[in-house]
Amino acid sequence: MSPSSVSRIIDRLEIQLKQRLLIRTTRRLRVTECGQEIYHYALNVISATDDLFSQAENFSNIPRGILRITAPNTLGKILLTPFLSDFLRNYRDINVKLFLTDNIVNIAHDQFDLALRITETPPENMVARLLMPIDYVLVCSINYHQKLPQDPCSLIEHNIFFPDEQKMYSGWSFRNGRGSIRVSLTPRLIINNSDAMLDTILQGMGIALIPTFIASIYLSKGQLQKVLPEWKIDNLYPRNAYIVTLPQRLLPLKTKVFIEGFMQWLKQKEIH
């Protein structure tokens, strides 16, 4: 809907209610107290309508319809797409629209049924189901051209790759049964894309700290190997992966079976 159409609808609504909903100036738009009340009431009406349709759908006891999902690029590529092959085979009346983006999507505005999010704190106005903590592991290619480091301090002699994250520069803290040590490293290569980072590691160009859910696939295939496996590295990014949905008293059956199936699939695959 165009902005002009929205403006006309709001104008008509203000005339009917005999109340200002928006205060317009040349530089900004501000919602009035009445406008905020109307907005929250409308959200409740929409939620109740969603519940009504969900209830009607669930009476059929057959999950069906279009399931709209959004997720970060890497999480979607590594986890969602392998799961979807089984899901679509098991639920032939469900069609899936998967939208991968590293931007935060407003699932209410863009009409998504659920979202996968990696965050420290899930949004308070939504229902968040914990999938897994995002842990990290230090890895390199099985064909890495140098002798592997024997202790954390030896890492300074190797090509270390960083994501474009400021926290990486603060130093890495290592722990084992004998004590702990903190090492400051200078990156040989900085990459802001997980796929590109993985490609360079697989080519044997260097060592990197990457999420375990990414590394586990390539470790199991024998393409990557752990570096300093006897050392535990403190997590620089204490975040979790969640499935996020809008607050509804009754989830649509298509959404419910997806969430339950995906969480069970993660447990079976021991992905963490």
In words, what does this structure look like?
- By secondary structure, the chain is α/β, with parallel strands linked by helices.
- It folds into 2 domains: 43-134 and 240-269, Periplasmic binding protein-like II (D-Maltodextrin-Binding Protein, domain 2, 3-Layer(aba) Sandwich); 136-238, D-Maltodextrin-Binding Protein, domain 2 (3-Layer(aba) Sandwich), CATH 3.40.190.290.
- It contains 6 helices and 15 strands.
- It has helices spanning 3-17, 33-59, 73-90, 194-202, 212-220, 253-269; strands at residues 22-24, 29-31, 65-71, 94-100, 114-119, 127-134, 136-141, 160-163, 172-176, 179-183, 189-191, 207-211, 224-226, 232-233, 239-245.
- Strands 4-3-5-15-6 form a 5-stranded mixed beta sheet, with helices on one face.
- Helix 3 (73-90) packs across helix 6 (253-269).
- The longest helix has 27 residues, at 33-59.
- The chain is elongated.
- The relative contact order is 0.18.
- The mean pLDDT is 88.
- Belongs to the LysR transcriptional regulatory family.
Walk me through the topology.
Elements: H1 3-17, E1 22-24, E2 29-31, H2 33-59, E3 65-71, H3 73-90, E4 94-100, E5 114-119, E6 127-134, E7 136-141, E8 160-163, E9 172-176, E10 179-183, E11 189-191, H4 194-202, E12 207-211, H5 212-220, E13 224-226, E14 232-233, E15 239-245, H6 253-269
Parallel strand pairs: 3-4, 3-5, 8-11, 8-12
Antiparallel strand pairs: 1-2, 5-15, 6-15, 7-12, 7-13, 9-10, 9-14
Helix pairs in contact: 3-6
